[in-house]
Amino acid sequence: MKDAFILGKGALYTADSEVTGLNNNIIICGGTGCGKTMSVVEPCLLATFDSSLVVTVTKRRLIDKYTPVFRDSGYDVKVLDFTSPETSEAAYDPMLHVSSYSDIAELACAIALGDFCSRDPFWETSGKDMLCAEIAAVMMREENPTFADVLKLHEVLGSQKDANNEIFNDIAVKHPEGCYATAKWSAFKDMPDKTYGSVYSVLSAAMGRFFTEEAKKMIARGGNFDFRSVTDKKTVLFVYVSAASKVQHALADLFYGQMLKVLVEYGESRPEGRIPTPVRLIFDDFAVGNKIPDFAGKISVFRAMGISAMLIIQSETQLRGMYGDCDAATVMNNCDTYVYMGGTDTDTCRGIALRMDVTLPKVLYMPLDQEIIFRRGSEPFVTERCDLLFAA
């Protein structure tokens, strides 16, 4: 059997983009409790036979329900549990995916330039440069560096300020020709104590947004998930987060940012220009929590790489609020399929009414058992949702 998408009654589509001429990126939009997971996500899980899956879930029942189903089908199933990272089966350490100066800069940007930080560009940029220096220093000082080592060094740089320059002076002595770590640290060598303390505090707050004590234990424990494994064999990775925890979403979104970078670069490096096993990403509550770094840029090349994404959102307003108007438009424009399942957000309803060429009340008061499916190149149509017991 071949992979398919079951989006509603009478709405079964092949996942072969060579046949459809469309990408497999899908937006599922609907208000809280409308049945997005049971009516669309679960049927699509059951219609996956060839691709690897990376599924963000906020409901443990999906993991318990579908782990035996996929294992019986020959899949390798893993769980990355950000709700209890210290006991998670799989682990995640962002340092294991850093191998170049650009990787250092991208990781530092993702952590230091988040929404939690000051809006003053000086503090954000300085915090990013400080983290670049710390990551580079750890990579030069440790044989098998982890982000736990970065966190330890960061504590030293705050509690023993007089020793800071000594640490980087030692690196400079070993590398008299100059190096990335000392170049990034040069801005802080003679910085006034008060200014240094402010930069350090801003960076500490940003790092605290990602790394709880439980997350630190996960990093120290090891057993990290290999991004490339999803391309080598049929794999299902459940990424379990709490819908109410921004910290868990922050680390999960950092994970996705690095994973997508690795998968895209791997696809580009192969002679055929794509990864060997297609990878389908399913994001529950996509616009909740934090932004996946450069997602708008990456989604535009998903089809060519053999990657696709299903984005579950509550409204277009929610998506714009998280990603900004420009990036949100880019994300939506790169999804050839859009399933609207109702809601009370008037801006979203106006957009749907415009695309359907109907009045606003027609969309705003749509019956609860109906949905609207848009596919690029086809007329939109109204259908009934899948029976909520379909996947039982």
3D structure, described in words:
The protein has two domains: 4-82 and 225-384, P-loop containing nucleotide triphosphate hydrolases (Rossmann fold, 3-Layer(aba) Sandwich), CATH 3.40.50; 117-208, no CATH class. It has 17 helices and eleven strands. Helix 4 (101-112) crosses helix 5 (121-141) and helix 5 crosses helix 8. The chain is an alpha/beta fold. The protein is globular.
Topology:
Layout: E1 4-8, E2 11-14, H1 17-20, E3 26-29, H2 36-46, E4 52-57, H3 60-72, E5 76-81, H4 101-112, H5 121-141, H6 147-159, H7 161-174, H8 180-189, H9 193-208, H10 213-221, H11 229-232, E6 235-240, H12 246-269, E7 279-283, H13 295-299, H14 302-305, E8 307-313, H15 316-333, E9 337-340, H16 346-356, H17 360-364, E10 370-375, E11 381-384
Parallel strand pairs: 3-8, 3-9, 4-6, 4-7, 5-6, 7-8
Antiparallel strand pairs: 1-2, 9-10, 10-11
Helix pairs in contact: 4-5, 5-6, 5-8, 5-9, 7-8
